[in-house]
Write a structure and sequence with these properties.
This protein is mainly alpha-helical. The protein has six helices and two strands; from the N terminus they run H-H-H-H-H-E-E-H. InterPro entries: DinB-like, DinB/YfiT-like.
Length: 184
């Protein structure tokens, strides 16, 4: 379980990592792939952008509609929330098949992907700040691929952060493989 402050610190760290370690790479390096079914650095970021395009507005709406009720600052977890979080934890190295419209494999991407990612992080930090005055345990965030299911606000925030951690680590591994490839 992470607090909103811990989630914010993680997002600040991810922003910094992308801004310093990934944005300085040239476009060929950003698009480098070990194999045709692996993701490049930019594809990892585009995958996260696709999630942010859905979840940031959904979270914004959920937070805005739950400012009036009782403030519940501690995240508690539903079965769906626990399952979702376990699946995206960075420590869980098991590959998961992503839904087709969230899979950026073989996309034509450029530096705008990085800028969009960084902008989403600024927006997410604002959402985390706004969530401090809401009931984090209100089921109010529809799951992207099956909107009848809803995550609690706190679960959804933690899901997004863990998911981003997972794929930024994947992008950094891609950068590392490229470094080994060019050094060999």
């Amino acid at each position: 379980m992470r607090t909103l402050e811990q989630l914010s610190l993680t997002i600040r760290g991810l922003y910094e990592t992308v801004a310093t370690e990934l944005s300085s790479l040239d476009l060929n390096s950003l698009n480098y792939k070990v194999s045709s079914d692996s993701w490049s650095v930019l594809e990892c970021l585009e995958h996260l952008n696709r999630y942010s395009r859905y979840y940031n507005p959904a979270l914004s709406k959920a937070i805005a509609h739950n400012h009036d009720g009782p403030c519940e600052p501690v995240i508690s977890y539903s079965w769906l929330g626990k399952k979702s979080l376990d699946m995206v934890r960075p420590q869980n190295m098991k590959k998961h098949k992503t839904v087709k419209h969230m899979n950026p494999n073989n996309s034509q991407l450029n530096r705008a992907t990085i800028e969009e990612f960084l902008n989403h992080q600024v927006e997410l930090l604002s959402l985390l700040e706004g969530a401090k005055n809401t009931n984090l345990n209100k089921k109010a965030v529809p799951v992207e691929f099956f909107k009848l299911l809803k995550l609690r606000i706190g679960e959804a925030l933690e899901f997004i952060v863990l998911h981003e951690e997972r794929h930024i680590q994947q992008a950094l591994r891609g950068k590392q493989r490229l470094a080994h490839q060019t050094a060999a």
